[in-house]
From TrEMBL:
This is Mandelate racemase/muconate lactonizing enzyme C-terminal domain-containing protein. One of its GO terms (molecular function) is hydro-lyase activity. Its cofactor is Mg(2+). Residues 214-310 form the Mandelate racemase/muconate lactonizing enzyme C-terminal domain. SMART domains: MR_MLE. Residues 1-20 are annotated as: Disordered. Coiled coil: none annotated. GO terms for biological process: amino acid catabolic process; carbohydrate catabolic process. InterPro entries: Enolase-like_C_sf (IPR036849), Enolase-like_N (IPR029017), Enolase_C-like (IPR029065), Mandel_Rmase/mucon_lact_enz_CS (IPR018110), Mandelate_racemase_C (IPR013342), RHMD-like (IPR046945). Keywords: Lyase, Magnesium, Metal-binding.
Length: 459
């Protein structure tokens, strides 16, 4: 039985909802972007949206989960979350957490819903909202943040959270337990690093959005440097000459002694990625992120082989649809950095599986954190990876745009994330944000600005 799990009959998840007429309260939350925040070569004008779910119980405990999107299609994720969540109604927290691996398998085993997946795409995004809400509920019951809840598990309890179907050719439960046991004796020292807010080093993308002017980019780089943030990522993939100019300006502003990363957001073919990256060699980027289609395992391997002599790594994962694709990327030696996403994968359980595979294949974890709530999630994932799995600090992307809508937004201090101590998974929205931005009934969407967005041209 997992630590702190409840006995059968306690705190059953109920269908009653003060928030909506559906059996489980699910809503769209849209936060409108400004000043080209979030702009990149593939996604020029996203808004910051999320499918949002609350799991209610027969007590005052509530579990909160989100699945981040960038606008249209958010309603599809909401519908997927609603249908998957129906499988939780009437269950007790105790029976669901007694074997989280079996619970995860149960949630992906509705054959009719599985037909429109399986374990990928919109259905998987909906699943992640439900699974992450369940973990949030468990953490709130135990009054522990998710990273601490997992860190206090034994290796056997950790492994019991994972569905190993489809990945046994990469790692077995027995191998996973042995791997975790190698970290047990030094786990305490890493927890102390977490207590000192020195467990998760941060880099920022906030100065590097493709839609920013050169002047705005430089201004934001300098303000971040002044605040102790010394690692940066820039979006590329537009006009090559424009990209070279921007990267040159950024590198000169940052300095060659600090870390710079590039992100193409999937826009290149494999030959283009190799050709274009040759144009950036003099600027010495650490890695190129998403240089081509996220599903192209062999393409990533070819790009990695071409860039390796130049000391440039390949990173991907934010659109990696499940543990199976990650398995193949690792087996094919196609990536240097494994970028798990808290919503694209099916929640904490599947992330834990990928962390273990990445450790076995000796590939560092650098989680993706590009939108509202994602950073709040991934700070926990980076912590549990460092403390339990890899023993090495996970460089983590820092994005805090519009964080004022969250109850517990991420914080950084001198280039590190401040360790979260609130119970649960840190993604609860403020009630006033739900009232303002729930789509399409929220007060913002009925305002002049909101109506202009709804009735305006589709980007």
């Amino acid at each position: 039985m997992a630590p702190g799990a409840l006995n059968s009959g306690d705190k059953g998840i109920t269908p009653d909802s003060p928030f909506s007429g559906s059996r489980l309260p699910v809503s769209d939350i849209k936060i409108v972007g400004f000043e080209s925040y979030g702009s990149d070569a593939m996604n020029p004008a996203g808004d910051y949206s999320a499918a949002h779910i609350r799991l209610l119980t027969n007590t005052d405990l509530t579990g909160h989960g989100i699945s981040f999107t960038i606008g249209r299609g958010n309603d599809l994720c909401t519908a997927a979350a609603r249908q998957i969540a129906e499988r939780l109604v009437g269950k007790t927290l105790g029976e669901l957490t007694e074997s989280m691996g079996k619970t995860w398998r149960y949630l992906v085993s509705d054959s009719q819903l599985r037909w429109v997946g399986p374990e990928k795409g919109v259905m998987h995004l909906g699943l992640s909202a439900c699974v992450n809400a369940l973990w949030d509920l468990w953490g709130r019951y135990l009054n522990k943040p998710i990273w601490q809840l997992v860190s206090e598990m034994t290796p056997e309890e950790f492994v019991a959270c994972i569905d190993f179907r489809y990945i046994l050719d990469a790692i077995t439960p027995e191998e996973a337990v042995a791997l975790l046991k190698t970290q047990e004796s030094t786990k305490g020292a890493r927890i102390q690093e977490a207590r000192k807010n020195r467990a998760v080093p941060a880099y920022t993308t906030q100065a590097g959005w493709l839609g920013f002017s050169d002047e705005r980019m430089v201004e934001l780089i300098k303000s971040n440097l002044a605040a102790g943030m010394d690692k940066f990522k820039l979006k590329v993939g537009g006009n090559l000459e424009d990209d070279k100019r921007r990267v040159k300006i950024a590198r000169e502003t940052i300095g060659y002694d600090r870390m710079l990363m590039l992100d193409a957001n999937q826009v290149w073919s494999v030959p283009e990625a190799i050709e274009y990256m040759n144009a950036f060699l003099e600027f010495k980027p650490l890695f190129i992120e998403e240089p081509t289609s996220p599903d192209d395992i062999l393409g990533h391997a070819a790009i990695r082989k071409a860039l390796k002599p130049h000391g440039i790594g390949v990173a991907t994962g934010e659109h990696c649809q499940n543990r199976v694709i990650f398995k193949q990327l690792l087996q094919a030696e196609a990536i240097d950095y494994c970028q798990v996403d808290a919503c694209r994968l099916g929640g904490v359980n599947e992330v834990m599986a990928v962390l273990l595979m990445a450790k076995k294949f000796n590939v560092p974890i650098v989680p993706h954190s590009g939108g509202i709530g994602l950073n709040e999630y991934t700070q926990h994932l980076a912590l549990l990876n460092y403390i339990c799995v890899s023993g090495e600090k996970s460089l983590l992307e820092h994005i805090n745009s519009f964080s004022e809508v969250l109850q517990h937004p991420v914080k950084t201090e001198s280039g590190y994330f401040v360790t979260p101590w609130e119970a649960g998974y840190s993604v609860e929205y403020k009630p006033e944000a739900i009232a303002a931005y729930s789509f399409p009934t929220g007060s913002f969407w009925n305002s002049e600005q909101g109506m202009a967005i709804q009735n305006g041209p589709k980007a």
